[in-house]
Amino acid sequence: MYRCNGCKYFSMSIPVGERSESGERKSKCVSMSEGFAIELYLDPALENQVLKAWNVLARRQITTHLIEMESRPHITLFSAPFLEPSKLESLLRTFASKHDPLSLSFSSVGTFPSNSDNLLFLAPTPSLSLLQFQSHLCDAIRKEGLEISDDFAFNSWIPYCSVAHHVPKNRMPEAFSLLRELKLPVAGYATDIALVQFSPVRELFSFVLGNNVDS
Length: 215
What we know:
Low-confidence stretches: 1-32
Mean pLDDT: 83
Strand content: 25-35%
CATH topology: Cyclic Phosphodiesterase, Chain: A
Order of helices and strands: EEEHHEHEEHEHEE
Shape: globular
Distance between the termini: 38 Å
Number of strands: 9
Protein name: Calmodulin-binding protein
Structural class: alpha+beta
Radius of gyration: 16 Å
């Protein structure tokens, strides 16, 4: 186990292996507080790899929180407690139409050192394309008069995809070990961008990257 991103989270590498073919699961996106979030959704095969992690932890009765909340695997690009969705619909439609799907490779499992929710996540291999995508999105949002919090600033944002919330502290090592079943890295694409409201979780609209038609 080692520290990544300037000691902002702990990560554990997983041996390389084959990944399974998969189907698609449709559900809602979720976050752990109240407000709005812009999320990146994954292609069906990559999404399935994340769902495998959820199911591994559920079978061992470690946590079923994300399953119970009907969360959808995602990477959060931006979040705010208050905003006017109508101001972002046209922005996100245009933004999505100008950007192709993003290549992703989840290569490690991580957790944050100060983590009251006992969160576990998959960390993507850092890529300039992903960082620029998020930075350009925040620039566009800022032009709409919305404030970008420090967590989503270019030099502070940490991309990750949650695989577990509220893991009992005494079972965190076991959860890390079980996630070896994922045989990381797993690769795929981010294919859609969505605005969601929570809680309760509700997807307001989403757009396919490279296409201006609603997904």
